[in-house]
Amino acid sequence: PKLSNPLPEAQKGEQSQTIAHKPALNPSTFNTKNPASPLPSQISSLGLQSPAMSLLEVITMASSAEDRRNTSTQSDYPIILSANDAFVNLKPKLENSDATALAIPVTGWQLSQTDTELIDLGKKFSKKLRIKLKDANKFDKDEFFGILVPFLERIKEKVGFPVGVNSSDGGYVRALFDKVGVFMGRDVASLTLEACVSFEVWDLVEAFIVNGIVHHSSYSDLIMSLVAKNKCDLLCLSVKHAPDLGLAELLSTLKYFLSPSDEACGGMENVRKEWESQALLAVENASDRNLSDNKFRLAKEASILLMLAHDGFSVSEHCLHYLLASPNVDELILSSAIGKLNGREVMRLIRYLAKWLKKYEMFPQAAPCPKASSKLGLKACDWVPKLEDVARWLGLVLDENFSSLVLHPEFHEELKSIEGLVGSLSSEAKLCCSVEAVIEHLRNEAKNEQN
């Protein structure tokens, strides 16, 4: 069918020149899946929409804007209400109401006294803190604690939770926050988190993350602030606890780990020490003959797994483990983030993934140890990337940058090395599948004989 408004001849010629245009690729900064894509200026001259933003970015931006609108005004009910007390007081509005009706009018709905008092406390504190934060030059850390601690103590009085720490002790504020911080409303929590980051009260920021008080809409600003302030340990903690990561925060975190500054490497050393301490604890458990047979066998498996995750990786690569092993990273968003990496970052990511492939080839007995965290206290075992995680990431890297990887010879040696590792692992997997089929057949025969 013909277009109702065909392009003029001059624009047709311009369009054909645009399609034929192939800009030169820069190996250090490539980020182009289709070198023949028309330039934004040329597309706008044709009356089309500029492709500067992908559909995913448009959706993400719209979602972020909606979150900002939702948090700009305080809710009348900023805490999660307890309905147990309210349901007891509900009574039918009509004495002879139809029990089969879809909706029955009721009376007696009211908030509990505790919920009402918590809401009022939060509103007053939020209003005071918002006014103080507007005049940042006169508002300091000591004054912030001067209004935060009484607010938390009032919550403690309302809910009746003992803290177990003397108010004169150094860890009192953290202990108090751990106990009653969850009773803060979303708006109050977001504002308090903003103040904690601004005044660099990192122990309370950690408490926000660990206790799950960071709202979804606050994670983006939090991660950007942690990257800017080089708080790598808290950034890794955010990756572990965030329910999901958006494109902006995932890309920022990925770039931060792949291209760390000198200041960032200092903070990453703390993450490496955490992996080292977990690996040493696993070795100690594997050497303890007083453990039961099950725990001893579990300790040996965990020591192999943590040895793989610790040895041979740089400090920044230890941080990448958390991203690779996270179950909360959406594959579509991850694919888009990988597509925005430059050539140097892609090379580092490929070499990092190749290390994992080589380790799993050398130690085929390495396997996930989900029970090691609860039974032996080896929580790092939950964050060791599995072979399928490595394969998934590698597949996304190849899909997003295939043409660029083919065109640039500096990638060829790395890809050939990976090809050999993948071939070796595939051959071993085929053999294991055959053995698994034989074992399953023998199990079925044994069941039939028993029946």
From TrEMBL:
Compositionally biased residues, Polar residues: 26-44
Region Disordered, annotated ranges: 1-44
Top-level division of the source organism's lineage: Eukaryota
Protein name (Swiss-Prot/TrEMBL): Uncharacterized protein
Organism: Turnera subulata
